[in-house]
Structures are given as C-alpha cells and as structure tokens.
Amino acid sequence: MAVDKTLMKRIVEHVPLGEGFFDEIWDTNGKLRPHYRKLIPLFQEVEVEEFRQWDELAKITFFNQGVTFNVYSDKSKGVERIFPFDLLPRIIPSKEWEIIEKGIIQRNHAINLFLYDLYHDKKIIRDKVVPADLIFSSAFYNREMIGLTPPANVYIHVTGTDIIKHSDGRYYVLEDNLRCPSGVSYVLSNRDIMKKVLHHAFSKYHVKTVTQYPEKLLSTILSVAPKGVDKPNCVVLTPGIYNSAYFEHSFLAQVMGLTLVEGRDLFVDKNFVYMKTIHGPKRVDVIYRRIDDDFLDPLVFRPESVLGIPGIMGAYRAGNVTLINAPGTGVADDKAVYTYVPEIIKYYLDEDPILLNVPTYRCERADELQYVLEHMHELVVKPVDESGGYGVFIGNRKTKAEIEEYKKLILDNPRKYIAQPIMSLSVQSTFIDNDNSYDPRHIDLRAFALMGKDNTYVLEGGLTRVALTKGNLIVNSSQGGGSKDTWVLEHE
Amino acid sequence: MNEYVITYQAQNHYPEVVTEGIFDFMVLPCNDDSQVVTATEFSNSLEEQAFQFKNVYGFDVTRLRTDKKFDALDFSVKIKVRKRNAISNHTKLTASPDEDDMLSQPDFQLDHHLYLTKTTYTNITNGHRSLIPIKEKGMPISTFIHELMDHIQDLVQYQKGVTTVQTTADQVLDIKGGVCQDFTHVFLAMCRYNGIPARYVSGYLNNPHGNHDDESMHAWLEALIPGYGWVGYDAANRCKTDINYIKVAHGVDYRDCAPLKGVIKTNSLDQKTEHNVTITIQ
What we know:
Structural class of chain B: alpha+beta
Distance between the termini of chain A: 41 Å
Largest sheet of chain B: 5 strands, antiparallel
CATH architecture of the largest domain in chain B: Roll
Number of helices of chain A: 15
Number of strands of chain B: 15
Strand order of the largest sheet of chain B: 12-11-10-9-13
Mean pLDDT of chain A: 89
Number of domains of chain B: 2
CATH topology of the largest domain in chain B: C8orf32 fold
Structural class of chain A: alpha+beta
Oligomer: heterodimer
Radius of gyration of chain A: 24 Å
Radius of gyration of chain B: 19 Å
Largest sheet of chain A: 9 strands, mixed
Number of strands of chain A: 22
Helix content of chain B: 10-25%
Low-confidence stretches of chain B: none
Shape of chain A: globular
CATH architecture of the domain at 359-421 in chain A: 2-Layer Sandwich
Helix content of chain A: 25-40%
Low-confidence stretches of chain A: none
CATH class of the largest domain in chain B: Alpha Beta
C-alpha cells in the first residue's frame, strides 16, 4: 500500500519563534530563506527510519576514522566520544561570507600589529588608545617576548575567530582565540562525512572546498622557518594522548606529513632544538605547538611542566626555531582587551571595522556610565578583572532591588565594570534524538584563519557549533555541544 | 677600586641515576659602569662544555646539558672582577624638586612598567596593605627608601630556614622572618606600590663587616631615582650598596635571577644541592 507522505509528520518543520530570535532557515513569515530552498525539502521527504540510517552511518564513519575526543568527568574517566554531529548543514551565502572573510583578515592584521607594538615601542599605549594597566596586569603579557621579533613579524599564524549572528541578522565577533584554537579537524571530517552520507544534497550546491586547509597550514608553517634553513624540519607538538584535542593534533600532523612529537621527544642543546630519532638527533626548525605558553619551557615558565622542552625559549629568542603561534599572543585575546579591538583596527589601519564587536560600555567614561545605569535591565554587566563568569550581572533576570544594589557597586568603582547588550545567537534546526525530529537550537561559528610570511588565508567554511540543550547559549564541545558542517556557497 | 676573585660552586647529589639533565646557571657578574669581569674559568664533573647565552634582560646564562648518566654534578666557576664604587655613591643624593612629578608621568611609567608591576613574588594583598608606608608628597625618594628599609627591619627578622625560594612577599609578612631575597621581595613590593620603579638584583657580597648574607648569593634591589638612575639598596642590611656588592643580574623578582635552575630525568624527586661561594680581594 502506498503511503501518503503528506500525512506524515515531517522531521524538519518551521517552528515559529518569538521576537528576538534569528532563524537561519526560515524568515519571520515562515518562508524558507533562498539558500535553504534546495536543501530543506530533501530533509522533509525522508522518513524518520531512513534519517536514522543516515545518522547511524555518519556515527560509524566518525568512529572508524577515529574522530573522537576524550571526556573527563567523575563518572567517565577518559571515555572516547564522538563529537555530536548534526546532518543538516549550516549554509552561508557567498555575499555574507565575503564580509566574514574580509573582516577576519582585517581584524587579524590589526591584532598582529598590536602585538608587535606591545612588545616593542608600545605606541598605542603612549597615544592613550589602550590603557597600560590593562596590558601589564594581564597574565598573558609575556616578558620573554619583549624586544623579540618573530620571523616575518607574524605572531598569530593560526586563529579561530568565534562569530555569532545576532537577532539583527548581522555578524558579531565574540572571541578572537589567538593561542591554540582547536576544532579545524572537525571541519574537515564533517565535510568528509557529509559528502559520503548526504551526497545527493551536497551535489545540489556549489560549496567552497575545505580540503586544502592542511596544505595551506603547511605552507604557512614553512614560510616562517628560521632564515637560512633550506629544508625546514617541522613538527607538531602535542601534550599527549590524554589531551582532549589529541585526535586533531595527530590528524593534522598526518595530513601535513609532519612528525607528531611530545615534549620528551625533543631537547635543546646550545640553543638549537633537536628531535630524538633512531638515527640520532635531528634538528627541528619549526614547531606547531598545541601546548600553552605556560608549559613550553620549565626553565622559564612553570617549573613543574613536563609537557614542554627545557631551554626552548633561549633557542626561540636566538631565532633558531620558530614557534607557532608565537608566545605571548594571549594578551590580545583577553576579555577586556577584546573591547578595544575596534579602536585597535582604527589605530593601526585607519579603517572602520568590517566585523562588529559586541558593543561595550566602559563605566569609567561618564556618558557611558550614565547609559549603563539607565539601561541595566537590558544589559550584561561584568567586572573587567574577573573571569569564569564571576560577578556577571544579567539585567533581564534581576529584580528592581537587585538592580539598585548592583548600581551601587558600579558607582563605587566605575573603572571596574563594563556592560554589553544581551546578545542572542541565531538558531538553526537540529535533530533532537528523544523527539525524533528537528528543533531550533542556538549556533555560532568558529572560523579558522592562517597568517604566514606573505600569505593570509581564511578557511572557507568553519565549525558551526550547536548548543544541544534548549535555550542554552553555551556551545562548547565539553559542555554538551555538537557541530554541523558549514557550507560557504560559491555564488548565490 | 677592588679586584675580587670569586668562586661559585654547586654540588648536586641525586639518590637515583639521572639520565638527562639541563642546568642554567646565572652566576657570572655582569659588566656595567662600576664593574668589569677580567677572567672566567668553568669546570664541571661531567666534562660537558658550558654554553653561554643572554636572557631577555641581556644577562649571561651559563647552560650545561648532558645525556650522560650521573648521580652527582659538581659545577664551579672562578671569576675575576674589577669593581669601583658606582658614580651615584660618590655624589650625595639630593632630590630634584620634580621627583614626584617624574614618577607620575605616563611615559616614565610606561618605560619602566616591568619594575612597577606586581608579580606573584612581590604582591602584598589587602590583609597586609596597611603595612605599606605611603610616601609623602615632596619627600625625597632616597629619604623615603631609607625609611622603608627601617620599616622593613621592624616587620621582618633575618632568619634562615623559615622561608624557601618560593616564598612570596605576602608570606614573608606572615612569617615575619626570612633571608635576603625575602627582604628584597617585600622591599620591591613597597617601592612599586609607591610608584618607584624597583628591580631585583642578585649578586655577591664581599662581607668584611659580617653582615647578613646567605651561603651562596646575595640579593638586593635597585630603585630608579629620577635624575640619578638606578641606585642599589640592601634591605637585609639596611644600607645603600657599595664597592662590596658585585652584581650578577637583575629582573622583576627572584625567578628572573635564580642562580641555578635545572630540569632532570630521574626516578626520584629528592635531590640535594649545596652552593658554596668564596670571595677574596686580591
């Protein structure tokens, strides 16, 4: 007997949302946005059982390819998990992508100049654009970098900019992630699996490729090798198999054809770095390190670190080895410094920022303080010197009395507080296992960019992260988040 | 002018065999306006060649690396230094009337930010804030620094064995005792809190008067007096430094100047290090 498909509940439907939400797929009238018109019907024609088969195939493929991450909690000690993956891709039209790409290149260019300045003449501080206290009180201001110029003046070779689409439909940068951003391996494996499982959907679009990332990363690494080295020996340095991003470290080393090493595989002799091999020591010229600054060199930073290479900072300062990224970049992706990025762009490039920053009101300025005090109910107020969410005040969840109480705190020490509007991440339909259907969830985008000697590159795609819990705004993988393939279109 | 012969010896003993080791020594006097090194002679029991390079502040680090197996390492260096009094020691420090003004200049603060910023070692938290004297406007910095040293003598007793190289200024004020580097950390914290740039100095003290010093190296600070430059003060001995103070290095705190840092591969956490310093005048 033939089944009348129109009578069945379709797994993807338009779910009307209240005001203040931006739905990536449907406009406010419930009409499909143009770039989803070929995709959504494919999901609406399929029955739950068949969809489940796609999903199962995707899961098995992830496992077989070893695309897993370790989860640590009291209940599960180092359990290998696959990063929850949703089959419905996020599509970014080419016109929108152009803005993102140009915006990231501009931002990174300015931040790189900023880092050089902070460790040399500090002009931006002398000119009173950025306050001195903010920089020198940062735990990430690295004294070992003072006066040092990395090859080609590049500090931030690899970045992962976190971007959201707000309810106004515009893109905002949340974080710059200038240290060791991870997640790019998921971009590549998500794409692989999409092509395999949903080839019929993929072939309906002209999607920009992501497969050249490893090649671009390798050429970035090679471009900043120490001067006079003919065939640089480059390695990927991992903290080891217990690190949650170990899969990514080994994956990237493998696809670039580089050796994956741990700190104990390397040693420093007379300011050169060597790798221990069965044929004897082999000099190392560039290290794509996936360990934090603090752990790099126990002779200079944390003495108890066993992950690093004792003496490496001496070799780095002597210019005999290049570290990717340069140490000390964290000073520019501190929460408070972030608020100055629009000024930083203006200062070094004399341009207006292409990508928006979440607007920030600094209570130290009288006019902004006034605004904050008058709009407490629609703002998030944060102390500048706390992290981990301490002291954060979310206006729309507070009573009048609580607001008055908090106002007093601000007035006591306006210098200590900043305020931002409450941002709303856009939503996209995501398959919810228990419901057997799709439901809107908040998403963001981590976009990966590279900067080498004469090249900049933004990966045309990125990691779309999903907050799997309804209403949750946190999209981290360790907090129960998932991911989606991100399709950047060649043309509209 | 004095000519000194200094020997620095470090003897390390390990209960288990060490299979790989790297050691950084910061024990060579630097060359500056008042001192010049005329000879150095290294030796070590592993017969490894010492390697020298400069740290971020431009001071010599002597590095020894080995992959020979060993359970003891003797390192020694013999140095000849010619030393005369620094210029600032000849001239009487008279304060320039705009000292306070200089300290408050943003460019001045920026140029010396390293020596004005608190570090883990030189942080005095709220509980002890009231112990920090505040310089009165118009009081000459050098006068204030002498008062600070008197004040620190009241707060901290010279006492060996009550602190370690990890002890912070805050902890010293709890313990109320310590050795030269502890006095120096408290002293640094109080100078910086008053906006006076101050840096940690490690070196050797020729000790003809039997003053406080440690078995190995001594520590004091240099404060920046606008119009004069960096001037040495020793809080443990409540005095200005003189021809008997032979400087090795400076930095923001002890961690930048530790005479010996090492990383070894071995199975036991225990180790014993003895430092021995002799200074003679030729």
